[in-house]
Amino acid sequence: MDSASDTSDTPTVVAVARDDAHRFSKPVRDEIVLIAGHGVEGDAHAGPKMRHRSRVKGADTPPNLRQVHLIQRELFDELAVEGHEVAPGELGENVTTAGVDLLALPRGTRIRLGDSAEVELTGLRNPCVQIDRFQSGLMKRLIRRDGSGATHRRAGVMAVVVDGGTVRAGDALTVTLPDGPREPLDVV
């Protein structure tokens, strides 16, 4: 079992959030329940088919590769230095983590959350205009270009639920990298 960490912190869940309506921010909860193949119980984005309002296309609705949204707390620390105060749940994530560089993990990485829940990373979250409605100028901080012109999205990662279970702040995280060739995360 491989573990990936960008700090000396023990990988943990910092906060969990869900919302039963399609709103940008999600209220922080004491716990959330993950359901295999479905997502976060009671969350507006849960379900086996895509639920994101801007992506649903009638009968052609694709599988939901965005059942759970995770963001690393370290991003909030970086944003604070850049003048943007952001708290868990405010960018719409379901799980805020610490001690793992989520953006550096490959597609297919599995993350055990607490005792029984496990998700598999499917891709990157593509920041949308709602981010600037939340805080003016924040979108520029979440999408960056490097010296070669490559785009780097920092608004978290998306996952599907492999094993269900209850997740709470303070739960340990365990990262398992996929076997074989490792593919970088792309937008889902």
Automatic annotation (TrEMBL):
MOSC domain location, by residue? 26-176
Q: Name one GO molecular function term.
A: pyridoxal phosphate binding
**Record's InterPro entries?**
MoCF_Sase_C, MOSC_domain, Pyrv_Knase-like_insert_dom_sf
Region Disordered, annotated ranges: 43-62
Which PANTHER family does its entry note? METAL-SULFUR CLUSTER BIOSYNTHESIS PROTEINS YUAD-RELATED, MOSC DOMAIN-CONTAINING PROTEIN
What is the protein named? MOSC domain-containing protein
Give the species: Agromyces tardus
